[in-house]
Inverse folding.
């Protein structure tokens, strides 16, 4: 198959490039339409949770009772009692369009002192919008937002809908900033790493093709499922990141073949047969890692799975077709100006490998202890879901939350809703006012609740609204939710609780309960793919364990930085004592996939050398020396791609950027450069072992590459007679 692809690139390289150009145009014309079809927002909630069920009930005739928008007016000089403050605000509120406003309450419409700050220099307006959809409410807010400014007063918009709007706007801006900063740096580094301007275009062409193709696939997905707006970020990161990895791998092998005296055609054939095979196995592992995200029902994680798997498929397809065609067309122009055939036994990484292999047990134990120690802080993590805490400290929604909590008797945005409905089968008949009020009183007695009252009844369903004051992401808020759900509803009914603290508990429980299953899925498919690639059952186990160690270091660092607040000044965020629960899932998918990329790159060359020489230590050292530049360069370029997100004002984007940079850096240096050689030396020939039935099956699968025939055999190891990969 791989040699066929090479021959196809040799005979029809220009036609492949022409077809790719036509595909890119078609994908751009159709695929960019996905931006108008994205479901909007992030979709962080668990659709199967009790809070989501309550939201669906409230979207019906019973209706919601929520302060979607909190408009804060304040003045340093005037108080709400001054006509110069009160008059303009009242006239402004009377003129606000009411077509999509269900409820608008203020100090002047209610007479309640709760709407006025203790110093009387500020007041808020509570607004409930008509739609039950979060992104439709954002559009409704934008339609009326310009009606609220009052000259001489400071105006801020808070509440869940305003927070969602501000996150959406800031995300778009931050993506542009991240690209403006990282792309120029990336272009310079591409030229440095690839050692020519022409060669540096290879990953850009493949990445551009992968991105456009991924957009087309994602638009196809939107015909059948809702997709989060954040899926575009995965396409940006992964498309370019994989293009860099695969282009660098293929170009390095192509240059080696040219330097050894092969002609362009032979170099293309051998590169496609060896590096192409590595790219395929690597891509399968990465794609299946993202497929594991479909185990989570939230729209955010499902969207990441769709976008990630689709991007990998297109990137691999482009790397197996477009990349060989580019190698053929560009030919010897891709060779560096000064061709230097280096002896792999004299390189720095070769010496490092032998150094750690001289004391493999001590090296392994020392590195493992360090990585485990770095991961231990993660055991004390406090999980959160995105809220206004992800915004910068000076963002309106975050300032409004802080101001209403500090200066007012109660924060109008902190509401919970209990939906009471008949049990199935129906229980005690129509809902009685006395039973509902008694239930509300029991809810109001739960520690942390500042009051509860029945705010709506529709037939056999009722709505109870509760106020609370604590941070919805705190451990105390979780205990409050658990105690509220433990309060028995009226006889013959059930109760479902919703609101930010409740949805946070539900999404955290969903993610933490399914994350082990995702990890198991990724581990099993990685094991299967690596066995098919190398014919060993030991190497896949080792690879999974080492990748988990590199991830643990990243997780521990994220807890110390974002939950505990270390480096908050340097990174520019305000810690809230919690970590976004979506973070480990994304890191497992992206970082684990990239780590497997690097693992396949390294072990392929080690396997080739071992099949050729039969020398365990030498094959590891030479394999590391030949791939170290590819792996570290690819890791550096990927870190630049994702590093732009560290500049984001959105905390969970910053969190993902920091986490990925740490994970990639640790994996490409400490794990691949030190831990892999040490563990391979400890395992020796048993690294390539498989049970005889599996070994025989593997040999029958014609896994060999005829350009890499072994010179020596190790018959005591079942898979040792298999030929190698690159």
């Amino acid at each position: 198959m791989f040699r066929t692809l090479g021959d196809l690139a040799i005979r029809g390289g220009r036609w492949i490039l022409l077809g790719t150009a036509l595909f890119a145009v078609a994908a751009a014309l159709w695929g960019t339409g996905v931006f108008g079809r994205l479901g909007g927002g992030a979709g962080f909630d668990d659709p199967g949770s009790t809070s989501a069920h309550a939201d669906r009930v409230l979207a019906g005739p019973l209706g919601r009772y929520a302060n979607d928008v909190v408009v804060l007016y304040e003045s340093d000089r005037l108080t709400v009692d001054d006509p110069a403050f009160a008059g303009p605000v009242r006239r402004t509120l009377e003129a606000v369009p009411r077509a999509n406003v269900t409820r608008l309450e203020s100090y002047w419409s209610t007479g309640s002192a709760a709407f006025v700050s203790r110093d009387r220099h500020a007041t808020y307006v509570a607004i409930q919008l008509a739609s039950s959809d979060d992104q439709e409410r954002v559009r409704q807010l934008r339609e009326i937002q310009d009606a609220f400014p009052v000259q001489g007063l400071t105006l801020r918009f808070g509440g869940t809908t305003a927070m969602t709007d501000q996150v959406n706007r800031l995300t778009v801006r931050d993506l542009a900033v991240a690209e403006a900063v990282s792309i120029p740096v990336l272009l310079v580094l591409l030229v440095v790493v690839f050692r020519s301007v022409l060669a540096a275009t290879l990953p850009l062409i493949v990445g551009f093709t992968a991105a456009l193709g991924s957009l087309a696939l994602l638009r196809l997905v939107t015909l059948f499922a809702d997709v989060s707006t954040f899926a575009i970020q995965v396409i940006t990161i992964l498309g370019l990141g994989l293009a860099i990895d695969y282009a660098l791998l293929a170009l390095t092998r192509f240059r080696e073949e040219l330097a050894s005296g092969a002609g362009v055609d032979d170099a293309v054939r051998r590169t496609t047969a060896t590096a192409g095979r590595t790219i395929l196995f690597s891509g399968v592992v990465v794609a299946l890692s993202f497929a594991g995200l479909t185990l989570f029902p939230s729209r955010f994680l499902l969207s990441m799975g769709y976008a990630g798997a689709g991007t990998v498929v297109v990137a691999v397809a482009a790397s197996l077709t477009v990349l060989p065609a580019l190698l053929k067309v560009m030919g010897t122009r891709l060779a560096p100006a000064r061709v230097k055939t280096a002896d792999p036994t004299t390189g720095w990484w070769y010496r490092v490998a032998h150094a750690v292999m001289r004391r493999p047990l001590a090296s392994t134990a020392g590195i493992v202890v360090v990585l485990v120690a770095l991961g231990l802080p993660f055991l004390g993590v406090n999980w959160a879901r995105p809220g206004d805490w992800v915004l910068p400290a000076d963002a309106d929604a975050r300032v409004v939350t802080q101001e209403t909590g500090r200066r007012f008797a109660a924060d109008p945005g902190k509401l919970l809703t209990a939906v009471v409905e008949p049990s199935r089968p129906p229980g005690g008949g129509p809902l009685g006012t006395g039973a509902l009020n008694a239930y509300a009183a029991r809810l109001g007695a739960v520690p942390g609740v500042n009051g509860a009252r029945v705010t709506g009844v529709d037939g056999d369903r009722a709505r109870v609204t509760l106020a609370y004051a604590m941070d919805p992401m705190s451990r105390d808020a979780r205990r409050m939710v658990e105690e509220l759900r433990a309060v028995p509803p009226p006889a013959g009914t059930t109760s479902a609780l919703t609101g930010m603290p409740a949805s946070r508990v539900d999404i955290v429980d969903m993610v933490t309960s399914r994350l082990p299953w995702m990890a198991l899925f990724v581990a099993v498919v990685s094991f299967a793919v690596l066995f098919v690639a190398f014919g060993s059952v030991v190497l896949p186990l080792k690879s999974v364990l080492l990748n988990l160690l590199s991830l643990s270091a990243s997780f521990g660092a994220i807890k110390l930085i974002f939950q505990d607040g270390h480096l908050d000044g340097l990174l520019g965020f305000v810690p809230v004592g919690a970590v976004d629960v979506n973070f480990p899932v994304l890191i497992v998918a992206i970082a684990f996939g990239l780590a497997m990329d690097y693992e396949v790159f390294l072990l392929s060359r080690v396997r080739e050398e071992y099949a050729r020489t039969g020398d365990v230590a030498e094959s590891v050292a030479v394999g590391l020396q030949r791939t170290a530049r590819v792996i570290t360069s690819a890791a550096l370029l990927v870190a630049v791609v994702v590093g732009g997100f560290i500049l984001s004002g959105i905390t969970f984007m910053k969190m993902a950027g920091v986490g990925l940079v740490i994970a990639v850096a640790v994996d490409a240096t400490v794990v691949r450069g030190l831990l892999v050689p040490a563990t391979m030396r400890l395992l020796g020939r048993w690294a390539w072992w498989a049970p005889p039935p599996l070994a025989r099956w593997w040999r029958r699968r014609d896994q060999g590459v005829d350009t890499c025939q072994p010179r020596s055999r190790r018959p005591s190891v079942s898979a040792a007679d298999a030929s190698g990969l690159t």
Remarks:
- DSSP finds 22 helices and ten strands in the chain.
- Residues 703-726 have pLDDT under 50 and may be disordered.
- The CA atoms of residues 149 and 155 lie 6 Å apart.
